């Protein structure tokens, strides 16, 4: 069985897009996010930047294997803004992203159908304008060993082309490596079978 260990996301914020309908303006923003604090920061910044706007509706999705998401209508009729935005995140298959659509009311009511279309379209436009990239799901391991075993550890790291993300090389050495998920079990067993060398999984990103 081949296990999917990749996901799609964006690396940098996308330039805002503008969708207009009956004098209402909908500005779409797309940001890369890794946690809810980052989500709050971007929303607060947009509320300051667009302090005269009427609504700041948004949706986000976090995670690769365990997914967290939220859709917020921010005063618009129920499910007329947040879920249409989130639907586009699902449609494009991206994660670790936040989309905010800022609305300036133009004096003419759009109705629920009009709102759904406007928020969905603004979200779609900003996703289409973004650069979507594919990343691998990685597992991080901490390798602990005495200095005398350095050559053994480094030989395996070089042979397997493993990515070192942190290291402390003293009498007692620690090296943190990041391994693509599909290779993780094999790499773990390779080190785990070695005498005087310990390996354990660690969690760096929230």
TrEMBL record:
Gene3D superfamilies listed in its UniProt record: Impact, N-terminal domain
Record-annotated membrane-spanning stretches: none
Residues of the Impact N-terminal domain: 22-127
Pfam families per record: Impact_N
Protein family according to the UniProt entry: Belongs to the IMPACT family.
PANTHER family: IMPACT FAMILY MEMBER YIGZ, IMPACT-RELATED
Name the UniProt record assigns to this protein: YigZ family protein
Originating species: Thalassobellus suaedae
